[in-house]
């Protein structure tokens, strides 16, 4: 059973296109996150949602729009893709109130913008 | 502003020996520290954590040490096994619950048979 799943795993697209990445977790967690790992390998938070409400938005261009239809899903839509958006995007989830804030990650989506 | 630093991009050890991965942080507000392990083409998986009120946490072959005054933590793996070969990320959080994790850049550990 996959705990946190993402689709697609690979995404190759042209500059200027709009694309979406889907994320689902079956852990019953309250909070979901999107992280970006860039070419320098830094893993940085982009957004987090708690029970469908946005709680963290880390200075991300407004071309990126997360959408949480329910607490088990957090999708990421990106408009007008740019070369610099090429990265690996990881979805994660955690249980509110978890002492150490252990977050469980999906396998990642490698986005390549040509 | 790199708040969590892993200054060694790579580490190579022999099977059976100890692996020591280091992590430094600058934000004194961090209360929780976590280590994640990542294999290629997979997401990071949680390994072990420690809160700022402790100086050591042990789980099987993995031990994390925290020196709060030095703002330094380390992960010890003993004995190291070839299956431990992965990238290890140090992460920190200012509180539990739904707070974001701030990650270091990772250290690639290679355990040679």
Name the structural class of chain B.
Answer: mainly beta
Largest sheet of chain A: 7 strands, mixed
Q: In angstroms, what is the radius of gyration of chain B?
A: 13 Å
Work out the helicity level of chain A.
under 10%
The span between the termini of chain A is 34 Å
Helix count, DSSP H or I runs of 4 or more residues of chain B: 0
Radius of gyration of chain A over alpha carbons? 13 Å
How far do the termini of chain B sit from each other?
38 Å
Query: Which geometry of chain A do the CA atoms define?
Result: globular
Average residue pLDDT of chain B = 94
Q: Identify the biggest protein-protein contact and residues per side.
A: A-B, 32 and 24 residues
As a percent range, the share of strand residues of chain B is over 45%
The number of strands of chain A is 11
Our estimate of the beta-strand percent of chain A is: over 45%
- Series of secondary-structure elements of chain A, N-terminal to C-terminal: EEEEEEEEEEE
Order of helices and strands of chain B: EEEEEEEEEEE
Report the total helices of chain A: 0
Calculate the mean pLDDT score of chain A and round it. 91
Quick summary of this structure?
Chain A is an all-beta fold.
Written description of the protein model:
The complex is a heterodimer of chains A (114) and B (113). Helices cover 0% and strands 55% of the residues of chain A. In chain A, the strands form two sheets. In chain A, strands 2, 4, 5, 6, 9, 10 and 11 form a seven-stranded mixed sheet that branches. Chain A has a four-stranded antiparallel sheet with strand order 1-3-8-7, with no helix packed on it. Chain A has no helices and eleven strands. The model of chain A has no long low-confidence stretch (mean pLDDT 91). In chain A, strand 7 (64-70) and strand 8 (73-78) form a beta hairpin. With 114 residues, chain A is mainly beta. Chain B is an all-beta fold. In chain B, 0% of the residues lie in helices and 53% in strands. Chain B has no helices and eleven strands. In chain B, strands 2, 4, 5, 9, 10 and 11 form a six-stranded mixed sheet that branches. A five-stranded antiparallel sheet of chain B has the order 1-3-8-7-6, with no helix packed on it. The N and C termini of chain B lie far apart (38 Å). The A-B interface holds A 4, 30-31, 33, 35, 40-45, 48, 50, 55-56, 58, 90, 92, 94, 96-108 and B 32, 34, 36, 41-46, 49, 51, 89, 93, 95-103, 105-106.
């Amino acid at each position: 059973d996959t705990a946190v799943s993402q689709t697609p795993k690979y995404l190759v697209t042209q500059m200027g296109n709009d694309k979406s990445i889907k994320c689902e977790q079956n852990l019953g967690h309250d909070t979901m996150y999107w992280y970006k790992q860039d070419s320098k390998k830094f893993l940085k938070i982009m957004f987090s949602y708690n029970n469908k409400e946005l709680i963290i938005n880390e200075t991300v261009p407004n071309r990126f729009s997360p959408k949480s239809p329910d607490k088990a899903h957090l999708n990421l839509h990106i408009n007008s893709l740019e070369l610099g958006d090429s990265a690996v995007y990881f979805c994660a989830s955690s249980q509110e109130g978890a002492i150490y804030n252990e977050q469980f990650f999906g396998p990642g989506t490698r986005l390549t913008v040509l | 502003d790199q708040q969590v630093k892993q200054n060694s991009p790579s580490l190579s050890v022999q099977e059976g020996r100890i692996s020591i991965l280091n992590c430094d942080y600058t934000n004194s507000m961090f209360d929780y520290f976590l280590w994640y392990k990542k294999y290629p083409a997979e997401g990071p998986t949680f390994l072990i954590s420690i809160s700022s009120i402790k100086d050591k946490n042990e789980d099987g072959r993995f031990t994390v040490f925290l020196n709060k005054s030095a703002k330094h933590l380390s992960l010890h793996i003993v004995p190291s096994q070839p299956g431990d070969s992965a990238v290890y990320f140090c992460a920190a959080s200012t509180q539990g619950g739904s707070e974001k994790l701030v990650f270091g850049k990772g250290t690639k550990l290679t355990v040679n048979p």
